[in-house]
Design brief:
It contains 1 helix and 7 strands, in the order H-E-E-E-E-E-E-E. With 149 residues, it is an alpha+beta fold. A hairpin with a 2-residue loop joins strand 6 and strand 7. The longest helix is centred in the first third of the chain and has 55 residues.
Amino acid sequence: MPSIIPGYVYTLFASVIIGTLIITACGLTVANVKREAEEQQLSNIAEYVAVKGMELTAHAPADNLTSVVHLDIPPLIGNQRYWIQITNDSSKAWVEAGFGATVLSSEQRVYVPTDIVASGTYVSGSGAKAFLQYNWDTAGASLTLYGGN
């Protein structure tokens, strides 16, 4: 009879190990799906800001006026802060986005297909809203992103 009890103990121990492995694998899968969803939402926000910039330039006032549009973006993605930056070089403008409160260069980049001077940064989580401003004057057209901290 004593030889039967260790068999049950080994089976119980193996079941605990297998159960732990299954629970861990499910947890990792859920965390990966959550991360991918947050990255997709960040990408959608960058695309949204680029589209709003194109809309502002397409419907630009004819004379030296300024147009401002409120950007309807969430204060946080999941429970993370994020940043958006609009910038340009000599040939094109783009919108970058990334997670955190520190603005760094990012691979999350959406190009704005227009010849315009672009600048500005928005950092989420501060309670302030984000705005995109189009300005046309003698120096040319410019887009400025502001808000946040």
